[in-house]
Specification:
alpha/beta, Rossmann fold, 55% helix, flat, DNA repair, DNA damage, P-loop_NTPase, DNA repair protein RecN, RecF/RecN/SMC_N
């Protein structure tokens, strides 16, 4: 749900911050006041391409931010986690900064993002319906999704898609194997040799590290023993042995403590030093007793290191990569061996195709049942919206199997009596398309998955009772605490039914035209509805009529 839209230096808006609520909201104002600026700004925040000329005159950049509540939008939450763009709360912040030279930057939750990422998110946040936009309902993929959502078989559609992907991968592998059987056979033989050679090394990374440590020790054994003996000599056997001098210091400080107890801490320190010195001597002596400088062991270690390096050079891999390489070689060998087994690639491919076909036929059956009900519901909604003899059909045309099933799905409409149903983008004009979109959404609303819907002048070309029906349908569409319907309208019949009403106005300030948008109270709404009813001159009669429409 859209919570806030902030706009800075965009077209004729200097600075604006609007808060939004759930339900049905109307935006009204004089023609040219800037009503569409709101949608244009939001569209840019949702990843739409910048066509230029959007930065306010004499300014360096336009800055647009949209804040959404995504607590109930699991699809968006999952997408953000997958792309490592999540925040600590359920608020999502999309931001777009557009410079006067046309360059722009995008941000998601304060992190730099691409326009494609904004666009992907936007498709799960807002659906915009206008006369001039090819919105989601014109896409065959969206039509298929609406039918599957309405029928409650989206999970079955996803299962069918995944089964097709599994089958297609196996099918490609089968074709590839049949084409390159000899190459694969040679590869398998080579893999077996390499794996046998690697396994004979009995290599582990921990052993390799220990081997290198032992080699370093044995290679410098004499030097090592010489250094340890020197340390022992200095600590204990030299004429000026450190241990003897420390004992002398200990005796002197112990005597001094009897005179001044403030030296007690120093006494404890020298005691500790003596203990540590004795422990150091014992440790060095133990090391000398255990050290083994067997030259034969050094030869064995060097031979093993050489064998490991030879294998690595032969196959162009580092010893540190041996274990991961073993896993990948083993997996590839298992795959190639499975191709040659009785239950090889061909058998697997047939089983995968069978599983896909079973799921696809179940999906087709479910779609057929849902399409009849959806067609009837949308036809009824159309006829309420001045399509008095209109007819809607969900056309299911059999096709070769694809990841999306066994049928081509397309929404068809006949907008008047005697007309043959045609694809909606061919059969409906701009205004009709907006109302048709409304009919489709109302008919399938129980399964609608986009929390915010914006309708730009869906009332074009209608009036009277039909306009009131449009308003009631929009109100019904927004009658949900987790859904928003924002409507730009010129009809008082529609605006009067809104729960929230925003006024768009235009002023002249400092030789510049500025647009302002604000939420109206009841008194302001009466004046605005009266203006929409009566034009420039607002009379007491039009005000009373406005109050009646608003039920104030």
């Amino acid at each position: 749900m859209l919570l806030n839209l902030s706009i800075l230096d965009f077209v004729i808006v200097d600075k604006m911050s609007l808060d939004f609520k759930s339900g049905f909201s109307a935006l009204t104002g004089e023609t040219g006041a800037g009503k569409s600026i709101l949608i244009d700004a939001l569209s840019l925040a949702l990843g739409q391409r910048n066509e230029g000329g959007v930065v306010r005159l004499q300014q360096e950049k336009a800055d647009i931010s949209a804040i959404f509540d995504i607590k109930d939008n699991q699809e968006v939450i999952d997408w953000l986690k997958e792309n490592e763009l999540e925040s600590d709360s359920y608020e999502l912040i999309l931001r777009r900064v557009i410079h006067a030279d046309g360059k722009s930057r995008a941000f998601i939750n304060g992190k730099v993002a691409t326009l494609q990422q904004l666009k992907e998110l936007g498709e799960s946040l807002v659906d915009i319906y206008s006369q001039n936009s090819h919105h989601s309902l014109l896409k065959l993929s969206a039509q298929r999704q609406i039918l599957d959502d309405f029928g409650g078989h989206s999970d079955l559609a996803l299962k069918t898609y995944n089964l097709h992907q599994t089958w297609h991968k196996l099918y490609q592998q089968k074709i590839e194997y049949e084409k390159n059987a000899q190459i694969y056979s040679d590869e398998l033989a080579e893999l077996r040799d390499k794996l046998r050679e690697l396994k004979q090394l009995s290599f582990t990374l921990s052993d390799w590290e220990a081997l290198q440590q032992d080699h370093a020790m044995l290679s410098h054994g004499n030097e090592l023993i010489e250094d340890i003996n020197f340390c022992i000599e200095v600590l204990e056997k030299d004429e000026t042995a450190i241990s003897d001098r420390l004992h002398l210091i200990q005796q002197k400080i112990s005597h001094s403590v009897t005179i001044d107890e403030k030296l007690k801490e120093s006494s404890e320190l020298i005691d500790s030093i003596n203990i540590q010195t004795e422990e150091l001597l014992r440790s060095l002596n133990r090391y000398l007793q255990k050290v083994d400088l067997d030259p034969e062991r050094l030869k064995d270690i060097e031979a093993r290191i050489q064998a490991i390096h030879n294998f690595g050079r032969k196959h162009r891999i580092k010893p540190e990569e041996f274990e991961s390489t073993l896993i990948s070689w083993q997996a590839r060998m298992d795959e190639l061996e499975s191709f040659q087994s009785d239950e090889g690639i061909e058998a697997k491919e047939k089983l995968a195709l069978q599983a896909f076909n079973e799921s696809a036929h179940l999906l087709s059956k479910a779609r057929k049942a849902a399409s009849a009900t959806l067609s009837q519901n949308i036809t009824q909604a159309m006829q309420k919206l001045s399509f008095s003899h209109g007819r809607f059909e969900v056309n299911l045309t059999p096709q070769d199997p694809t990841a999306h099933g066994l049928e081509h799905i397309e929404f068809m409409v006949a907008s008047h009596l005697g007309a043959e149903p045609r694809p909606i983008h061919k059969a409906a004009s701009g205004g009709e398309l907006s109302r048709l979109s409304l009919a489709i959404r109302v008919a399938s609303i129980s399964k609608a998955n986009v929390p915010c819907m914006i309708f730009d002048e869906v009332d074009v070309g209608i009036g009277g009772s039909v306009a009131e029906i449009v308003g009631k349908l929009l109100k019904e569409l927004g009658n949900h605490d987790k859904r928003q319907v924002l409507v730009i309208t010129h009809l008082p019949q529609v605006a009067s039914l809104a729960i929230h009403h925003y006024k768009v106005s235009k002023t002249q300030e400092n030789n510049q035209t500025l647009s302002h948008i604000y939420l109206m109270d009841d008194k302001m709404r009466v004046d605005e509805i009266a203006r929409m009813l009566g034009g420039i001159s607002i009379t007491d009669t039009t005000r009373e009529h406005a109050k009646e429409m608003l039920q104030i």
